Amino acid sequence: MSDRAADASGATGGVEADEEPTADADASTDGPTADRDWPTIDWDAFWRAPLTPADRDAMCRRGHDAARLLGDLFVECGVPDTVASVGCGAAVVLLDLAEEFPDTAFRGYDPAPAALERARANRDGRAASDGPLAPDRDIADVTFAAASLPDPAVDRTFDVVYCLNTLDYVPDIERALRDLFDLVADGGLLVFNYPSPARQAWYETHLANPGDYWLGEHDERWLRRRLRLVDTGENVLTREQVAGLLGREPRPVGAFLEGVTPNPDPVAPVLAVEE
């Protein structure tokens, strides 16, 4: 982390010896995950298909909102040297943050090869445009690699690890949460949301009236498969269970922001836990 971050959290930064390569040297390892047995929908097929306007608009809107929240957190707690996004998808959040914090090294992880392809294309597209990630700037610190939850098999730590709108689709959520926390450097932060009983109830309402839910070009059967782990309660956790798993009490991100009254989304609150 920066000096300000170290002062705020007692951290001295990530593990220097574990620094990642500065290019997507591991891009060739993306392929095998395409053959995996997906526990919900086939996310590789999802990312390989053309995005509908509804998909794109919803993704960008949520991504920009999340990036603003994380950006406020970085400014308040100290700009981190290293950040990992686990379940990065098309990397809307990550690339927004990279533009705002060009001195931070960002690493995006996703199990779907098509998601990583789209993320790299989005990165390269932003690099070709005018702005903070223009070609005359060093963008080597925005890289992507294949990893899944649980057991991401990432052998380094980061000042900030965030995992947003991803754990709903992970069966072994207890192990996944512990694995995420293991990626956080001493004094760092894990930022995440998770499938709670409130989220399960929200899904039940929308599954009863699927036409009211954002479906895009997808049908009701696809929606039910996508949400099945939360709908059946297979990976639903209470706040107390999360605290027990991590050995820390998670707090709404707003609690870390000066002058902001925490008012988390009751369905999918974004929480943070300090290592």
Layout of secondary structure:
Blueprint (H helix, E strand, L loop, with lengths): L2 H7 L33 H6 L4 H25 L4 E5 L5 H9 L4 E6 L2 H15 L14 E5 L11 E6 L9 H10 L1 E9 L4 H12 L11 H7 L1 H4 L7 H8 L4 E2 L18 E4 L1
What can you see in these coordinates?
The protein has 275 residues and is an alpha/beta fold. It has one domain (3-12, 21-274): Vaccinia Virus protein VP39 (Rossmann fold), CATH 3.40.50.150. The chain is built from 10 helices and 7 strands. Helix 3 (53-77) crosses helix 4 (92-100). The longest helix has 25 residues, at 53-77. The chain is globular. The model is unreliable at 1-23, 25-29, 31-35 and 133-138 (pLDDT under 50).
The CATH superfamily appears as Vaccinia Virus protein VP39
The percent range for strand residues is: 5-15%
CATH topology: Rossmann fold
Indicate the structural class.
alpha/beta
Q: What is the CA-CA span between the terminal residues?
A: 14 Å
- Overall residue-averaged pLDDT value: 82
Uncertain regions spanning at least 5 consecutive residues: 1-23, 25-29, 31-35, 133-138
Overall geometry: globular
- Count of DSSP-assigned helices: 10
> How would you spell out the order of helices and strands?
HHHEHEHEEHEHHHHEE
